[in-house]
Write a structure and sequence with these properties.
Elements (H helix, E strand, L loop, with lengths): L1 E11 L2 E12 L8 E14 L2 E14 L2 E18 L2 E14 L7 E15 L2 E12 L8 E14 L2 E17 L6 E15 L8 E12 L7 E11 L3
């Protein structure tokens, strides 16, 4: 389950104060596996010609099995620029500090950068290509990683419905090996997703979305080596 709530307060011409509350939860039959995330971000939204700039302060909290798991805080910069009538580019820069409740070896900073290019291929066909680089620092070098990869999304509007498919690949490498097991992360992560946004069932601007997601992680470290298939249902609103 995922959800986002936005509040936009006008400050001046072409300037707003934007506040976002986000939450996600993976709920299982056994509560000790429940994974819940919540975050709050706030900052100005600046409209300058073809550009929209959103510098934000962010704080987040994660719970696992009903107990506190981690706290994060930092900043996020989002810059979107329209290139022409049918395309735009978007840049995200994130710097967060993570404090883990159960394992101090995970404590550290995350620096993330992502660049996306979006284009309308026709009035009803849309494509997006993205690249991402992350650097996760940690006290324990076995948890310090580089992540490099990208994703491709294609969507098609049929009637009032919005169908989409997404494919992503990321390579994750760690600075050092774990003591137990004596292996270093050198992972290949592939994810494929497909779904539909049911605009015909929208209510007060909210439309249900159904997504099926398949994730496959190949890793020398056994607890990062897995495959998973899951279905997601959410309510979405254009913003």
């Amino acid at each position: 389950m995922t959800g986002d709530v936005f509040l936009r307060v006008p400050l001046a011409t072409a300037s707003n104060l934007l506040t976002t509350v986000s939450a996600s939860a993976n709920i299982y039959g056994k509560s000790r596996f429940n994974d819940i995330n919540a975050s709050l971000s706030t900052g100005p939204e600046l409209l300058r010609g073809r550009s929209r700039i959103r510098p934000q302060l962010l704080v987040g909290k994660r719970w696992f099995g009903g107990d506190g798991y981690s706290t994060s805080y930092g900043g996020w910069l989002n810059w979107r620029r329209q290139l022409d009538r049918s395309s735009q580019a978007e840049l995200d820069l994130i710097l967060l500090h993570y404090d883990y409740d159960r394992n101090d070896g995970l404590d550290g900073r995350l620096a993330s950068s992502a660049l996306h290019y979006e284009r309308a291929l026709s009035p009803r066909l849309f494509g997006r290509l993205g690249l991402r680089v992350d650097r996760q620092q940690a006290r324990d070098p076995a948890y310090a990683t580089w992540t490099v990869g990208g994703d491709f999304l294609l969507s098609r509007e049929i009637g009032r419905q919005f169908f989409f498919g997404q494919l992503s690949y990321y390579h994750i490498s760690a600075d050092a090996a774990f003591r137990l097991p004596p292996a270093r992360r050198d992972d290949d992560l592939v994810e494929a997703a497909a779904g539909v946004l049911l605009r015909s069932l929208s209510f007060k601007g909210l439309a249900p979305a159904i997504r099926v997601r398949w994730t496959h992680s190949k890793s020398p470290v056994f607890f990062y080596d897995y495959s998973r298939l899951r279905a997601e249902i959410s309510l979405t609103r254009d913003f």
